[in-house]
Amino acid sequence: MDPDPYLLSYYNLYFVWLALADSITVVGIYGPILLILITCSGLISASEVAYFGLNPNETAQLEDKDDAVSKKILHLLSKSEKLLATILISNNFVNVAIIVVSQIMLTTLLPASNIENFAKYLNDFVFGGLFSYSGLAVTIQFLITTVLVTIVLLLFGEIIPKIYSGMNKMFIAKLMVNPLNFLMKLFHPFTKILTNWSSLIELRLHKHKENYFTTSREDIDKAIDLTVPDVQGESREADILKSIVNFGETAAKQVMKPRVDVIALERTLDFTEMFKIVKDAGYSRLPVYEEDLDQLSGILYVKDLLGYTQESKEFEWQSLVRKELLYIPETKKIDQLLTEFQTNRLHMAIVVNEFGGTVGIVTLEDIMEEIIGEIKDEFDTEQEIDYIKLDEHNYIFEGKTLLNDICKVISYKNYYFDDVTQNADSIGGLLVEQFGVIPKAERVINIKELTFKVVSSTERRVEKVNLRINNNES
């Protein structure tokens, strides 16, 4: 006897209704739980950006306030390692819970039988029976349960919350201060273990940091070139960043005005002669010496002359000379010198050699130019570095031109000559080192990818040098 078709239809409808009822029950129970967990994950991720993204100004604003919330935020920030460990542990617990709940929901909504039927359909009509039913079913289930959940977690638990938190750090910090305090107490045993482990690892790495964390200036320069776009405005920023990186490695002798170029005042000059030198020089400060530059007696500030411009030649201008002199060795780093300038409220230092002789002067302007480039004022009528550019690869330099300045002109790193020179500061000194004597005109030498040809020289020094760049690599 054949079964009644009407009974079969009711029978099938009954099982469809049961399956639908199960799905509704699962969604109704686990759906809100999943939404709550995703929200918690997002808030915890956002709090990481909020707390560890607060800048000094925002922290100072919290310190100025006397409310309880600000004090709690500062208390959490004072325990930054424990706070970070709490955030990471909490986020992992929540994410694991999201995966478990999602698995339960997807297993109910998409039974294994449905996935197997779908796999059979794909294998037969799309892949032409290329795969096995069971293997394809496992792959489909993996894609649905793992990839889908990962996308949801990344999008709603990480990316969107962190972007929002970056724009509203203080709001998220205040919103999460009490939950984080509670979580910090709840997970205290776990955070203690984690922070102890991290401290132990940090201690071990610290002992070998010279092996693991050494970064050369070349590496940093390359990193800056990679991260800063090569456009007109941005390349200027890249140059400033590179100058800051090398700032602490630059010695005073590399930026000083050498002795032969120093304009100074002899103490025996009368007022008229002194005033003419001051007017022609155009500097705001000039060293004053007794017999030569090795016997300096002070510095004359031009502003101190403003009330005496109409005085006669017999006026004793020497009484205006200030005695404060700052002597520094050639090897002093300019970052340390800048600190001394700030501490002593000075703008000029006298550079001396190991025997105490004056070899040049360094000003605050010289130091600042190492970072931001050449500073022009109303008295700078010509370029400070004296050279002639013949073409893109050929230059004529004065023998006294500093190697640091040559690097600026030819767009090379300012430490380019460090490995080929011992004590030379100028291009003439470099050639004397290389030849062992003062080279005569027409002498040629190759140093790395540069060719140096002596254009003219005397018995005492190299006067002019032709520099040719053999390739365009710096």
SSE map:
Blueprint: H1 5-52, H2 56-64, H3 68-78, H4 80-109, H5 112-125, H6 133-167, H7 169-186, H8 188-207, H9 209-212, H10 217-227, H11 232-247, H12 252-255, E1 257-258, E2 265-266, H13 271-281, E3 285-289, E4 296-301, E5 327-329, H14 334-344, E6 348-352, E7 358-363, H15 364-372, E8 387-391, E9 394-398, H16 403-409, H17 427-435, E10 444-447, E11 450-457, E12 462-469
Parallel strand pairs: 2-3, 5-6
Antiparallel strand pairs: 1-7, 3-4, 6-7, 8-9, 9-12, 10-11, 11-12
Helix pairs in contact: 1-4, 1-6, 1-7, 3-7, 4-6, 4-8, 5-6, 6-7, 10-11
How many E-type strands?
Answer: 12
As a percent range, the share of helical residues equals 55-70%
Q: Beta fraction of the residues?
A: 5-15%
Low-confidence region ranges: 6-20
**Overall pLDDT:** 79
Radius of gyration: 37 Å
- Give the termini distance in whole angstroms: 95 Å
Number of helices: 17
